[in-house]
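Exercise 7b. Backbone tokens:
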């Protein structure tokens, strides 16, 4: 079968590989669509080993079940399903608490639970074998949207859900980086909170995509950016900042615009460093504010997100590519030519 693989450092190619054979507790999925993420681009251009050679990429997966292991009784052939992107054990203290994205048995202190397309073979292929416990029913959803839910949607949903106690009507949420994840963040904030939304991005095309959905849009290179954001909040700062970039500049911005006892969530992975200061006169972070580095989301988050998607309230830009154009999709994403999420569609 065809697959898009990380072959070696500096090389991602379309290759021919054997069709997966499922084991106990697994299902075989015929992939219908697979999202393309900046994570895949990072692997493609990394100069050091980040994942094993010959790993099939793709952690955003939707498809139809074509085979189940004999011990899998809760799923049936023909169901459209999506795949939870981190595989918890289901029995450790974190999984039992509903925090499968921090599983103690399959992950560790500094590395997450197994993820398709990262630590195991992913969904940029005609077929993928996955744990039945990681499968979430997604009947009726457009496959292109369904694929993107598993990361581009799940990551912001998890952060927004974790801060919903302070996202009351009249609160302010800032979204930094309005690409695939940022567009989902705007839609989710609109659907489940009463917050006033501010969108920030370097590209006018990205801001144009959400301009009529948010209270304010600002370019990230605006020299008056901090004062303009603070002015919209009466000088007090934003209640929640969702930073989908995570570089030195945006991390400094996060601290300068967050309100006292506000929450900064940084899913962005752009190698940034945040300066945490403790002096009485410091200006990097107000009293009570928190900054968190969230990972993915939980099973409950993904089930809830699927339910939200079924309401039709998640209107995001999706750029469709044929599977054979996967390398073009990666190049376009790397060059900043994709507005929203890129998704590969199988023939």
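Sequence design result:
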């Amino acid at each position: 079968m065809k697959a898009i693989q990380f072959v070696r450092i500096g090389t991602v190619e379309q290759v021919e590989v054997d069709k997966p054979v499922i084991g106990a507790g697994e299902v075989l999925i015929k992939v219908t669509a697979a999202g393309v993420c900046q994570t895949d681009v990072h692997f493609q251009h990394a100069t050091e080993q980040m994942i094993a050679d010959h790993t099939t990429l793709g952690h955003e997966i939707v498809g139809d079940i074509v085979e189940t292991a004999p011990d899998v009784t809760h799923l049936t052939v023909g169901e459209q399903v999506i795949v939870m992107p981190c595989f918890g054990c289901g029995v450790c203290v974190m999984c039992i608490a509903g925090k499968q994205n921090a599983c103690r048995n399959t992950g560790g202190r500094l590395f997450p639970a197994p993820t398709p397309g990262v630590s195991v073979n992913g969904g940029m292929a005609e077929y993928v074998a996955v744990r039945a416990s990681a499968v979430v029913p997604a009947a009726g959803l457009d496959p292109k949207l369904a694929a993107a839910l598993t990361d581009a949607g799940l990551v912001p949903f998890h952060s927004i859900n974790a801060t919903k106690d302070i996202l009351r009507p009249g609160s302010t949420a800032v979204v930094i980086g309005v690409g695939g994840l940022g567009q989902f963040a705007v839609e989710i904030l609109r659907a489940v909170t009463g917050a006033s939304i501010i969108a920030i991005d370097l590209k006018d095309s990205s801001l144009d995509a959400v301009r009529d959905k948010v209270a304010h849009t600002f370019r990230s290179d605006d020299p008056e950016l901090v004062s303009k954001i603070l002015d919209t909040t009466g000088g007090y700062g934003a209640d929640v900042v969702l930073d989908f970039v995570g570089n030195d500049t945006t991390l400094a911005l996060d601290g300068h615009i967050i309100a006292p006892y506000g929450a900064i969530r940084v899913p962005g992975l752009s190698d940034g460093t945040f300066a945490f200061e403790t002096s009485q006169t410091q200006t990097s972070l107000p009293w009570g504010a928190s900054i968190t580095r969230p990972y993915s989301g939980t099973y409950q988050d993904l089930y809830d997100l699927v339910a939200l998607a079924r309401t039709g309230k998640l209107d995001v830009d999706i750029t469709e590519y044929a599977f054979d154009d996967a390398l073009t999709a990666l190049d376009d994403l790397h060059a900043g030519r994709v507005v929203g999420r890129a998704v590969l569609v199988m023939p």
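Instructor comment: The chain has two domains: 2-139+317-345, 156-292. The domain at 2-139+317-345 is CATH 3.90.180.10 (Quinone Oxidoreductase; Chain A, domain 1).
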